[in-house]
Amino acid sequence: MERFFEKLENSLKEGTIIKMTLSKPVIKNNELRNVYIKPILLKNNKMCQFVFRYERRDETKNFDAAQTMGQVRSLVPEVFQNVSLFTLTEDVTLLVSKKGKPTFMCKPVKEQRAQDLSHDHEKQRLIDPSKPWWYLLGLTTREGKVIADMQHKFKQICKYVEIVDGVMRQTKFDDEIHIADMGAGKGYLTFALYEYLTSHYDKKIVMEGVEIRHELVQKINDIIRDCGIDTRRDAMNRISTAESTIRFVQNSIADYKPSNLDVLIALHACDTATDDAILKGIRNNAKLIICAPCCHKQIRREMEKSGKTDTMTRFGIFLERQAVMITDAVRALVLEYCGYKTQVMEFIEIDNTPKNVLLVGRKSDKPVDKESIAKQIKDLLDQYGIGEHYLWKHLFREPSLRSK
Ligand SMILES: C[S@@+](CC[C@H](N)C(=O)[O-])C[C@H]1O[C@@H](n2cnc3c(N)ncnc32)[C@H](O)[C@@H]1O
């Protein structure tokens, strides 16, 4: 084991490390699945970037050489049984058996290798800030540089695109993909996703942003027209030869009537607007429903009205947090009830707020036990004396949905 740590220490000292992977968790279903480590240059200092890959999220941290040694020692062999270290000159492997017996292997490399010291985010330019719409949307300068105050927003948009892309790649689509972004606001994600999909998917993309505010819709449609996005095929370096389109429609989510709907997105649509969006997706048989809920007022009001607080919810802040959990848990259950395989994801790179939760429902053919799910919803609502959950109640306003 020490021979391995010696190799690691030397490669850090000499700056020859290319990458390292910690894998095979000691506990089979450990939430932390793998750790990927690579050198990066941060303000001219060589550091190691650790990507901690959990079941549903990644966490990135940077450490100097001493901290890297400490981290790896704390993880091997307690948490991971296998380590592969690749350096400019050697491939080093450490395998620790269940009984704790280490096997050390070291193989010199014959070929010439190069190091990549770039930061992950430098490589991941999912969207191109030099495109004219980013300037017109107020995210970049005229020269295409992201404005300092908008860096956070830009990062957030890239993260969303990455997540939506990951989810979409696991879904089968026909030659056209109809996407609606409900409560699209200023349209950052709508544009970003359109830009990304039209340059990475060989499909016709039909994107609609649905927004209730009239002036905003007008302004964004002007930007679309001024940039010629929906008419010029080559404006976005699309690899698709299909004629894709993007447009904004002024409508409330509840009244919006899509002609086709494959992917429904609703990011931070206020309170029950998220429920309206989910309903719209279910009613139109969307293949994918992706929402990041925000401001969970409806259930909070119901909980306050009931006066049924418990040891936790008698404290206002916990009542609020519980309202968030119940609202979104029921949304996830309703999606399952309607035949959607549902995931609740979290992305921690951005602020730690309830807005970080993402509900992803993927339409499935598998039969569901509706009775059991309905009971779970009822029990949860009863426990907190909640008279109605907007989505659950409205689902039954449309009788056909009961059998969907
Ligand atoms: C918080 S913003 C989110 C904007 C964008 N999705 C984002 O994540 O950056 C919510 C937007 O939804 C719009 N909105 C709220 N309720 C709506 C409804 N029922 N129908 C359509 N749009 C709605 C608001 O006008 C606002 O622009």
**Shape-level CATH architecture of the largest domain:** 3-Layer(aba) Sandwich
The CATH class of the largest domain turns out to be Alpha Beta
Query: Which sequence of SSEs, written as H and E, runs from N to C?
Result: HEEEEHEEEHHHEHEHEEHEHHEEHHH
Low-pLDDT runs: 231-241
Annotation field: number of helices: 13
- In what range is the share of β-strand residues? 25-35%
Distance from N terminus to C terminus (CA atoms, Å) equals 57 Å
Bound molecules: S-adenosylmethionine
What does this entry look like structurally?
- It is a single chain.
- This protein is 36% helix and 27% strand.
- With 404 residues, it is α/β, with parallel strands linked by helices.
- The chain folds into two domains: 2-121, no CATH class; 132-402, Vaccinia Virus protein VP39 (Rossmann fold, 3-Layer(aba) Sandwich).
- Strand 1 and strand 2 form a beta hairpin.
- The termini are far apart.
- The model is unreliable at 231-241 (pLDDT under 50).
- The structure holds S-adenosylmethionine.
- S-adenosylmethionine binds at residues 183-185, 188-189, 210-213, 252-253, 267-270, 273, 276.
- Residues 183-185, 188-189, 210-213, 252-253, 267-270, 273, 276 line the site of S-adenosylmethionine.
